[in-house]
Specification:
globular, alpha+beta, DNA-binding, 5-stranded antiparallel beta sheet, single chain
Amino acid sequence: MIISDIKDLALGETLDCGQAFRWKENEDGSFTGVAFGRLVTFRLDGSNLSIDGADESDRKLWSDYFDLSLDYGSVRNELSLLHPTMCDAAKYAPGIRILAQDPWEALCSFVISQNNNIPRIKLIINRLCEAFGDPISDGWYTFPSAETIAALEPDDLAPIKAGFRNRYIIDAARKTASGEIDLESLKTVPVEEAREKLMTITGVGVKVADCTLLYGLHRLDCFPLDVWMKRAMAALFPELTPSSFGKYGGIAQQYIFHYSRMHPELFE
DNA sequence: ACCCAGGAAATTC
DNA sequence: GAATTTCATGGG
């Protein structure tokens, strides 16, 4: 399948900027991985995005995944007016887009992310999928459903080596699978209410809730503050707050996060 | 040995 | 209630 007229997208910048953890780059610059239970390979040729392995009936799914209906060029221009450093950050990786990931996968991934580093987050998620996901083709597995994880006990997760996060993962799965938390409905309720609901999960605080809201529920106004972002706000935007960035604050946050991680010398 | 990692819970003051 | 400690695990 091919989606044409693509603008403001770079696969590497988007798929490997700390919002998703399962995409692998191939030698030719394409990316392969599994999302929504499908094994696919993305290739970007100019303004054509080809998606190998995608069924035509999933056109909207993948278009939404890359948030293609939003004009990121305009968003970037608008954000850039706020602050010169915001302009630099947006210019540094103009191909970043906010993915609309599966809500449960995002929730579970960011529960795992806490007090952890990105390479190890990827390893743990890989082990989670190998151990409890469904095999698709050799070496590739689906992300295990909340229902699957809900049926386990924390000790069953020992092989993935997530440590103290095991019981958090189980609690997130159980509240999701039982319907106690309806992730789909959290896409539309007031954002404060959605955040509060997510935080009833053991192991979900403000930061993990905001990551789930932004990357899983596509609440683009959410502005997760992790250690990098706190440093960045203090050092680069002392006069601004998350709400200064407006309804696309989440996009601003991602430009700043990526820019900061790639320029650690800014904080020495 | 020590420090840190896209934090949050548990404990202590 | 606010500040500090602990929580597994692995890499530098």
